[in-house]
Every structure is written in structure tokens, then in C-alpha cells.
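Many introductory courses stop at the sequence. We go one step further.
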Amino acid sequence: MASAKVDPTQAAVAPVTAAAAETGKQVPIPISGRDRVYTADQTSNTVSVIDPSTNRTLGTIALGAQRLGASFSPQYLENTGVHGLAYTRDHKRLGVVSVTSNTVTVIDTATNKVLNQTDVGRAAHEGTFTADGKEFWVANRGRDTVTISDAEHGGVLANLPVGAGPSKVLLSPDGKLAYVNHIKLAEITVIDVAARKVVDHITGLGSTFSSDQAISPDGKELWASHKSFGKISVVDLVNRKVTTVLETGPDTNHPAFADTGKGSFAYLTVGGLDKTVVYRRTASGVPEVVTEIPNNGHAPHGIWASGDSTRVYVGLEKSDKVDVIDTATNKVTNTIGVGQEPQALVYVPDAAPAGSAPGLGKQGLGGTPENVDTVLPNGRPGDPMRPGNKGRVLEATVRQVSGLDMIQLQARELEPTTTYQAFSVDRWGRRTPLVSFTTDASGSAPQVLAFADFQGRRIAIESQGKATQQTLAQAVSKSSHHGSGGSSGSDAPDGRVETADLLYCDCC
């Protein structure tokens, strides 16, 4: 498709004022060659850099080796599991969270150079810079803490206990309060930033496992997504209470906001339906569905609006691409290739000199993941999208990683607490075992990984019967270790630790 043309008349209508700048609220910044879109690419361990004025990927910042390969060496020194993103309010620095190496990397947006790096808590997930840009606060799912790091020089300043399974940290527009969602608590924890003290708990969310959250530009609402349960909790931050819980669909991922001349809207990625759903915010606090936008690829995940809200950018986790949505028409106008398995996505206005792309490489670019057909134990296909917003029963994505193929399976509504064997099936119907996995109590397996030279045409699964107590104990142990609500990769019945176990992440 042709590059998007920016119409300045479609820009958001909020005035540029000193008060807005002081509180950190967004003001309209028309799309230009100085802007950048970044994606955190979990499999290629890169950050992709896009110029939104041309819809062209400029290159990638490599923060580690691609999965497998050198990353298993005891001498490996780089990052693994590039996953979370945030940027300073002056748009000069980017914060990158790697979930497997448990690191926060700070990057200069003008030069693409790493400024510093800090080792933080176990299963660090998503974080944010303080308003002055001097600190980076990151949630540690595996340590029940928020690590406060020195964003200017690197190093840990403090660890703040916040409750079980913290997932993401956000700041209020004025920077005075921090909000933390959780994967093990149905609440939002409120922190006084200056005092570094928990001051409140907003309870009554729709469920636990809140993987992501976003705050509206006016600072009045927080939307917390519940990926494993297909819901969004809408929180009134003024009165600190939940106003509604929306049933949104399987793999409800990231929310983002766009204020345009037509109103204030929330855009929500629903990975299991390959859709981005648009809601209109209302005075009652109960949003209204405007439309559903089919994405040009699989598993929409990270999402962010441009500085003027004329475009919304959506990362496609299982297609290694980014969709560009025109907010005037709510249609996808362009699709851009990025690194492997994009997770978080941010749009940073005025991030770099126009036309500049120093220090960028090509790691992770150019590959095309294949979403292959699947077959259920009853012989029926598992990959067609089911009616009623139920998503697929069994989906499989294959992509090349370091000379091998990474086979990623996701299952819904199979038999609960049951062990399955997955097979690669070639053109002649011959089967080769790939990996075994165990479903959780709801029959789900959020992410199963295997690594092999995949020569098949499709993937079939067979039931191995109800899981044994030993297998269930392993699954629960992995679930607790990784902060997952479900099965965690390749569950070896004999207790072996497999490659997939070491690389598992129930993506946010």
C-alpha cells in the first residue's frame, strides 16, 4: 500500500497549553519524519524502529542474540526476551524491559545507542519513567515488587513491595501517583511516587491476570486488560472505583487512547480474534462499541496512537508486522514488517532528527512466520475462527530462529488438565512427535514452544489422557514461576527440563 498521507485537519483538538505540558498530558503533534514507532521483538531480541511519516522500518536495535544459539552459553552476556517499552516525557530516551534476562535497558532515541542497563527483579515485565525521567519503575511478576532504577546512570535505587504478581507500572499525568496492575490480584495498587509508599488499593476488577493497562489522556480512567479471561476493567481514577467490566474476547491485550474531533476513543487489541475493537468513552463510564477492525495478520498485541491521534499502530505478534489504522475511517491503511514476535509498541513524537537512522541493523527482519493448519483429536480442524467471538481452538505459528524453527502452539477449550502430544504431519500424512503439553483447569494452554527442523504441512494433537499428579505439579510450578494463569510450554512427563521451559513467557 502507499504511504499514509497526513491530513493536519484530522489532528486532535486539545489546545497546546503550559498547563497541559506541566501535567504531562498529550498535546497534538502532527506526524513527521522526526517521529518514531518502536516495537519490542521478543524472539529476535530486537527493538524495531519505524519512521511513521513514510511507514518504513528503518532497522532494528539488537539487544541480544536471537533465541537459542548463543543465549544458552554460560558466557552469554546480552539480553533475552525483549518485551516491554516506555519513553521519557521529553521523548529523548527509550526504556526496554527484557523479561527473561530481567533487565532494563535505556536507549538514546536520537542515536539509538544504549546509555545504561540495570539488572532488576525476577520476571520483570512492564514499566515507566518518572515524570522527570530520572527513574525507571518496573513491575517484577516473580518477586511481588516494583524495582526503582536510576535511569540516568543505571543501578537499582530501591525495591518496593506491592503485592502478588505486579505486571505493569503507569504514572498519572501529573507524575505524582503510580498505578500497578497484577496477574495474581484483582486490584490496582496506588503508590505515592515521591514517598515511594503504597497509599491505596482499587479492588473489584473483573478478574486477576491483568497483563496490561493504559490511562486515558485526561487522567480520569484506567483500562486494565485481563488476557486470560477476555475482559477489560474500566477504572474511575477520580473516585478510585471500577465502573464497568467489558467482555472483550480471548487474549484481550493492550488498550490505547485516541482523542479526535469526533470524541474520545479507546482502541483495544483482541489477539484471539485478530481484531482491534474501538470504544467510545462516555460520561457514565460505560464505553460504547463503535466498530471492530479486522487486522491484517494474527494476534494483535501492542498498540499506540500517533501524537495527533490520526493514526493507531498495532503490533501483530504472530505475523511480525505492524498495522496502521486511520482513526478517521477506522480502517487499516498500511502494514509494515518488523522484528520477530513484536510485543509492546510505543509511538514517540519528535524522537530523532528527520531521516536519521544511526546504528541500526537488520537482525530479525525479512522473515515471514507461517501460521499452519492444525488438527484436533477428533479429526476436525482446530484453526478456523469460531463464531461468537470464541477464537480458534488450536493455532500454530512457525518461524525460523537461529537455524531452527520455533513452533508455537496455543490452545483453548480442550479437555481440562489433560496431556496432549503434538505431531508434525508431512504431505504424506507421516507424523513426527514435536512436544507434549498439559492444559489447565479451563482446557487452555496459552503458549507451548518446541524447536525443530519443521518439515510438516500441519500440526495434529492427540490426547494422552488425564494428567498425572506429577505432571500437574510441574505445570503448577511452571505457572507460578512464570506468572501464568495456564500451561507453560513443553511439560515433559518424566520431569526433564526442555528447551521450551527455559524460554517460556506467557506473553502480555
